[in-house]
Amino acid sequence: MIGFLKGRLAMKQPPMLMLDVNGVGYELEAPMSTFYTLPSTGEPVALFTHLVVREDAHILFGFGTDAERRLFRGLLKVSGVGPKIALGILSGASVEDFLRTLEAEDVAMLTRIPGIGRKTAERIIIEMRDRVQKLSMPTVGGEPLGAGMTQSPQSEAFSALIALGYKPPEVTRLLKSADEPGLSTTEIIRRALKSAVKA
Q1: What kind and span of H or E run contains 5?
Q2: Is the overall model pTM greater than 0.85, yes or no?
Q3: What integer is the mean pLDDT of 154-169?
Q4: Going by DSSP bridges, is the β-strand pair 4-13/44-53 parallel, antiparallel, or unpaired?
Q5: Under a CB-based contact definition with an 8 Å cutoff, are residues 46 and 62 in contact?
Q6: How far apart are CA 130 and CA 110, in angstroms?
Q7: What are the φ/ψ torsions at residue 50 (nearest 5 degrees)?
Q8: Cα(57)–Cα(53) distance, rounded to whole angstroms?
Q9: Which residue segment(s) compose the domain that 106 sits in?
Q10: What does R_g of the chain's alpha carbons equal in angstroms?
Q11: pLDDT tens-place string over residues 51-65
Q12: pLDDT value at position 149?
């Protein structure tokens, strides 16, 4: 099992990123909560990792903090929750926000995340309540976020939201709420996800 990777950030295009570790490029999928803390491309970075092995693929997931990885692993143990839904939850809420959602038993907030219906949301709340103390860990602070790569910030945000499971018409609506000149890709995605949770 690969516990963490330390190297240079070779590429970032939500939800994918590539880490150059001594000349070997590791492709990882990461939640937006991790993308918000990534440095600029070419800068050094260290990420906690989790490997998901399927019949057709080995997928490596990267996290800026151990608390994010703990939450991801806890969510995978919930019946009906796979890596895509777990990433969606971490992209829509910080670990602290998720813990508050559990405490408040806020089913409605969870059902706003793509792929989560009412029954799954209720199951997540019931099954995750017992694991809350394990998740309440101090987090390691991230570094300032760098600029996007080649596409326009709006295009990158659109692709990232589609990859997180939102439908194109919904993405268009969410991006309108975050339409402000000069915003970075991650800030656009952050605002769009906030408006999705409030909707």
Answers
A1: strand 4-13
A2: no
A3: 77
A4: antiparallel
A5: no
A6: 18
A7: -140, 130
A8: 6
A9: 66-135
A10: 16
A11: 998 889 899 999 999
A12: 30
Contact 143, 43 (CB under 8 A): yes
| Per-residue pLDDT at 40 | 92
Distance linking the first and last C-alpha atoms of the chain: 39
* 86 & 105 share domain: yes
Torsion of CA 71, 72, 77, 78, to 10 degrees: 80
Nearest to 63 by CA among 99, 98, 114, 28: 28
CATH of the domain at 187: 1.10.8.10
Query: Rounded CA gap, 65 and 70, in Å?
Result: 9
Tokens 């990267």 found at: 62
- Per the structure, the count of domains in the chain is 3
Compute φ and ψ for 8, nearest 5 degrees: -110, 140
Gap between the Cα atoms of 109 and 153, Å rounded: 27
Q: End of a domain among 13, 39, 63?
A: 63
* Segments in 56-167 forming alpha helices (H): 66-76, 83-92, 95-104, 107-111, 118-129, 132-135, 153-163
| pLDDT value for 97 | 83
Q: Identify whether the C-beta of residue 49 lies closer than 8 Å to the C-beta of residue 28.
A: yes
137 Cβ contact list (under 8 Å, min separation 6): 66, 67, 70
